[in-house]
Amino acid sequence: MVERRYCPCVSHGGFLMLVLLFFLFFFHHAPMAAAADAPPPLPAEDAQDILINLSSVVGTNRWNSSTPVCDWTGVTCTRSGSGSSLVVTNITLSNYGISNRSIFASICHIYTLQSLDLSRNSFTDLGDLFPTSSCRMKEGLLSLNLSSNKLSHSLSDLSGFPQLEVLDLSFNLFPSENLSAYLGSFPRLRSLNLSSNKLIGDIPVSMAGSLAELVLSGNQFSGSIPLALFNYGNLSLLDLSQNDLNGAVPDEFKSLPKLQTLLLSGNNLSGKIPPSLNVTTLTRFAANKNSFSGLIPTWITKHVRMLDLSYNHLNGSIPPDLLSHPGLQSVDLTSNMLEGTIPNSLSRSLFRLRLGGNKIGGNIPNSICDGMSLAYLELDNNQLMGNIPSELAKCKKLSLLNLASNQLQGPLPDGISSLEELVVLKLQNNSLNGHIPNTFSASLSTLNLSQNSFTGQIPSRVFELQKLSTLDLHGNNISGGIPISISSSKSLIELNLGYNALTGTIPTMATTLSTSLNLSHNYLSGSIPSNLGSLIELEILDLSYNNLSGEVPSSLGSMQSLTQLVLSYNHLSGSVPIFRQDVEIDIEGNADLINGNGNNNSISTTGKKKPHNVVIIIFTIAGAVVGLCVLAVIVMMSLSKRIYRVEDEGLSTGECVSHIINGHLITMNSIHTSAIEFMKAMEAVCNHQNIFLKTRFCTYYKAVMPNGSTYSVKKLNSSDKIFQNGNQEKFAREIEVLGKLTNSNVMVPLAYILTVDSAYLIYEHAYKGTVSDLLHGEKSDVIDWPSRYSIALGVAQGLTFLHGCTQLVLLLDLSTRTIHLKSTNEPQIGDIELCKIIDPSRSTGSFSTIAGTVGYIPPEYAYTMRLTMAGNVYSFGVILLELLTGKPSVSNGTELAKWALSLSARPDQREQILDTRVSGTSIAVHSQMLSVLNIALSCVAFSPDARPKMRNVLRMLFNAK
Ligand SMILES: *[C@@H]1O[C@H](CO)[C@@H](O)[C@H](O)[C@H]1NC(C)=O
Ligand SMILES: *[C@@H]1O[C@H](CO)[C@@H](O)[C@H](O)[C@H]1NC(C)=O
Ligand SMILES: *[C@@H]1O[C@H](CO)[C@@H](O)[C@H](O)[C@H]1NC(C)=O
Ligand SMILES: *[C@@H]1O[C@H](CO)[C@@H](O)[C@H](O)[C@H]1NC(C)=O
Fold it and tell me: Which PROSITE patterns match (predicted)?
């Protein structure tokens, strides 16, 4: 549902180019119109004399008098009229962290200006930015971009732009107000973007009739879609996604004959898809995550190229022609109530088809690959029957095939597993039989054939695949031995061969195994090989229900990462080596085996370990329910509203004397226990001036304790979630657990305070800014590569640690703004408690409104609605890319990850991704950066299954040294 203009491709990565092209086209053709009424030219030399005044704000390395103004960073000049004099027409000062309003005094004199881009700065108040009386620039300005600032006052302060055509105020803090009163003051407005503010009330309908693009996504607009909106006959882009809109959509689209993109995702709209939507220009329509019902209109894809109707209540069958229209690119009907069969005829251009989570029956049509373009095919969790058609092997571009949880039978036809581009193959939970094929795509990273009826042996070639990371064959009837080629597997992280009929001994295993190795419920014999002890990253080892005999090798004691060892029901003897206290050990059913550890599968430890199993199961079962930590986060709009409300920090000292319900020290360290005073902490919170950082969900205050030492106090802006149904106790327990974590790259709370309506956490104060400040802050010093690399390593270490905790810790908001620096190269991951607070289970609506920060949100969150480790890996990949490129996670409306992926397709363009200011410093740096780039790109892979686990990422980063 991240259907905003500013990240158009979060859910449709592949369309990036198209959408970009569309916008490029738009902006290219924009400026001509007003050129005629422009005032007499202000020569560039004169502009330079005015603008030089700003060099102290912008930086003398960018704007200085030794370079002509037209060559200054962010300044564009154009030859004006027939004369050949240059004038300054565009100024772009994006992402300089500027908050100093004095720059406007000078910019206002540049009346030749057509385009002003001040996005990603820190302006707070529109009011005095453009004093009407003295700002000549306003008269000719065509395009104004103030997106991603901290503007929070009234929009009414923005008026007097008679020529303005493009206004972008997205990602600010504009509050609830009656917009309609102001939007009329831009008579030539063509493009208005108010996305991601805090606007409430009705959709405004007082804009100029010329309006062609309206983006209002990510606010809290409510009510139904007003009829008056259909008076804007020039509209080509209408994005109302992620609001609180309800009711039926007016059937008036014949009044919008130029509509190209319509995004309604993530609201509560209901009723049928309106019949008048058969607009010939409409190429993209997304209405996912609403309550639309009724049938899928037969004509909907006649013009639409990208259709997303997933997560609605549509029923009936898929119209026979729906998928066949020429030019169709992507259809997503996941999670509706569709019945009937899959249409026979598919468009040649269709590259993504998702029909999972319906009640579709019948066979998979033989013609499904006639189109040849399919890259993503997901038909899982339906009632499909019959054989898998061998024609699927004709889909040469297939990279993800998910047919899991159907009633498919017969063999897996030759040629499918070896499709060259195939990365993920999921066929689990069907009734497939016959042998496992012997040839595989070299790209294959996930192969799941579990819970079928496959027979024969495990093909030894499967372990020669360089990229295979997950192999799950459990619950079949596979016999023979485990191929010895497994020792040479390079990427295998998780192997499950349980519940088969395997015989022979356990061979030397791949040392990359880390998540789990499950060989249980087979007929394996011989002794446990001592070299299993070299699997120092393995967390779960299950060898139960085999015929293993002999002693348990003492080398197993060196498996440092082990959390669970299951040896039950074998014929083992001797004694179990000594493990860490918290390792769960199960040796039942081995008459001669003695466990000297205190931790023999006792009730208390079992209770703790369960989540781990749950996690693994959840990763394999689509649509699984909530695990202790893997959260099915489906968040109510009402929840996000509450978050927004508490974000308003209106605290005066009087209001501030909050009654402390519970203040509790977690740390045992006497330095802290004697220093921390809860009342002092609360006093600090009363004073606005103590705020030193605000993240998406938290506000940090600096507090000086009576003994002079300084602490950070963090206010949780989503505190209200903690107080629902007396959740305080649960929260307190979870914070206690987090407080016991010890990792130098993770911010661990020392104490917490609960008041009547808020929650606060106390930390050591060692704050030297965030990674975002370091990379994109006002200080213009270029950070060298060794520092960036050690930040990457530190964050990877912290995140690997959190993912490896007994009670998995997932991050809701992982970005360069939530990573604090203790020093230039000592990063610490902050805000680790969020996934414990934001109770997902009772939420509905749009996930992406709360799932972290735009630019870091993995594409699949829009569909899966739950936090995952793979999702965190994606966010980490974006952080790596920021370190490599020096660019922010979103710039000019394009997500960094998407941009890097699009460039990386051509090896000769990879250079261009890197920050040349550092990659050029030495050959060694350059080659190391390229290796890290490869890691970053694998982390931001579109398919979550294709992303490496953090453990592996960390290892790869080390190897890149
Ligand atoms: C230059 O800036 C200073 C303050 O920053 C201001 O007082 C002065 O008037 C400015 N000069 C011009 C020519 O804008
Ligand atoms: C002056 O600005 C130019 C272009 O913005 C830059 O390349 C140059 O290094 C700057 N000069 C100084 C002395 O900072
Ligand atoms: C300058 O601004 C105009 C008007 O918005 C725009 O069309 C043009 O592409 C811009 N040029 C550059 C080089 O950014
Ligand atoms: C498309 O819309 C027009 C006008 O509303 C209508 O007359 C026509 O029958 C519609 N066509 C289809 C295929 O529904």
Answer: LRR (PS51450), PROTEIN_KINASE_DOM (PS50011)
